[in-house]
Sequence to fold (439 residues):
Amino acid sequence: MKSNQKLFVLFWLKKSKATTDGTAPVYARITVDGLTDEISTGLKAPIDYWDSKTKTIFQSWPKAKTANQKIRQVEYDLERHFLLLQEQHECVTPQMLKISFTGKSPSSKKDAVKQAQQAAGQTLLDAFDTFISKFEEQVNQQKRDGGTLRQWRTARRKVAAFLSHHYRRRDLGLKDIEPGFAEDFYDYLTIHTSDPVAEVTAKKHVKRVRQIIKPAVIRKVITANPLDTFNCSAPEKEVQPLEMHQVEAIYRKHLTIPRIIEVRDAFIFQCFTGFAYQDIYNLTTRNIVKVGTRNEQWLVKERGKTQVSQPVPILPIVAELIDKYKNHPYRKMTGRLIPVNSNYRYNVYLKELADICGISFDGITISKQEFNTHLARHTFAHIMLNNGIPLEDLSKMMGHKSVRTTQRYARVNKARISENISKVKEKLFTKSGKLRAVK
Fold:
């Protein structure tokens, strides 16, 4: 009676249970058909010695050899128990494996409910946990953004709170979700919670839930996504980029505070490369490549958000900044091209920079909320488009999967409109304003 299910085991450090001696317990996350559960290995490891890529302990820790052997033994034992369960059952759940491995029956009503839910089918929060677990791995491998991971965790917390408020339940089976779920969740987020969010934010959370459910449709756990009928789209807010004279004002501003100088340099770097925060943060000398017969230097990196290659020729101002920091301690310590703060600090210091430089739009001081790292990316698109770079080339440089995405960044400035309309005016009309005769 052997099933064809597959077991995946992931070891991780539960930092939320870290102790004062700097160690944290090692847990095993077991996944079967998208369902997950956790098992304590009984091991504790120093946080500073944990290798998040190999899921083992660095050999430089004195007890590493013994601890890593224990981790491998736990993995072997889990696989052995899983094979035995497959011989006895058509469908094996993580909860069944946990009970078999630990020798303990469900220790609480919550565990018993979870076992029943897993036997019946995946739950919504299970699906969230599986998705977040995979996303964490991608963040550890610097393939996805930590800020986006926080958004997914926030979405999970809000869904859990909604289930408790609306259904009086800890979780909900995917098969039990009805189309009305989306509208009820949206109303909860915008009206019924003690901390309501904006409508556009609520729609984003509904959209995340819809994305979480999608794999269950692909695996035929459910026949259709019950949230597909809900309209998650919202009017996109137009981002007004900086004009070239504003970028120049920031670039030439005399500054004396080192942290503001470094933030200014990082922002200018972004304005002339188009890299998002996550990508500029991870740029190293390995991303500098020579292209073509003239050996032009380009920055080439796989974009963290889309995994699409982003090739950008190095302009003189960017080369100047790369050279400026070649002997900087940050470069020597991390190998990264320029010093970049955490996203939070970067944005805080940018607002300080905006105050110092007196940046304004059409005579109105720019909103501090709008002056952020992503404004530089919009500014790059604006500068390139208004200096003759075709939309298709810009799309490639920005690492977009589709030109349609790039079009959202397209904003032609008034000077270019005026210049182009002058050409049309000269072609169609005489100096006195009379329409020219068609030749």
Q: What stands out?
A: The mean pLDDT is 83.
